[in-house]
Amino acid sequence: MRGGIEVEYSATQRWAEPLDQGLSRALAEDLSRNPRIRAYGFSPGSPPVDHNYDVWIRLERFEGNDNGEVVLRARWSVSSAESSIPIAARTVDIRRQGWQPKDYPGLVRLLSGEVIEMSRQISQAIP
């Protein structure tokens, strides 16, 4: 983001997979690091595996901006597989400084750390 209002896309740097699938995969990997949780990522076209809980994430911001800040803002909720009523829900707004604009590997590192932090919060909410 430039100036808080203009999106600047890189002509050469691209995510290797769709963001929803990549975030789902990364979150499942992070949650599975907790010995009491076995998590599975979203896979389009595949039926879900047998599970006890659903995790829903609405990603609102996932970006670096021109002042060196990296932001992950999302709303997440956890519900039992049998109900859509959340047993836990939260808005997360994680911000880190120190990104050099156009340093895309650095941006990915910082965003990955923010996803790990969000995963820890979600894992604490799963009974």
Keywords:
Rossmann fold; single chain; 2 helices; elongated; 127 residues; 3-stranded antiparallel beta sheet; alpha+beta
What does this entry look like structurally?
The chain has helices at 19-32, 104-125, and strands spanning 53-64, 70-80, 86-96. The chain has a 3-stranded antiparallel β-sheet with strand order 1-2-3, covered by helices on one side. Strand 1 and strand 2 form a beta hairpin. The chain is built from 2 helices and 3 strands, in the order H-E-E-E-H. By secondary structure, the chain is an alpha+beta fold. The termini are far apart. The protein is elongated and about 45 Å long. The longest helix has 22 residues, at 104-125. Helices cover 28% and strands 27% of the residues. The model has no long low-confidence stretch (mean pLDDT 90).
| Strand adjacency order, main sheet | 1-2-3
For the record, the CATH architecture stands as 3-Layer(aba) Sandwich
The radius of gyration computed from the alpha-carbon positions, rounded to a whole number of angstroms, is: 16 Å
Q: Label the overall shape.
A: elongated
* Individual helix count: 2
What is the CATH homology-level superfamily?
ABC-type transport auxiliary lipoprotein component
State the share of residues found in helices, binned by percent: 25-40%
Question: Quick one: biggest sheet?
Answer: 3 strands, antiparallel
State the CATH topology: Rossmann fold
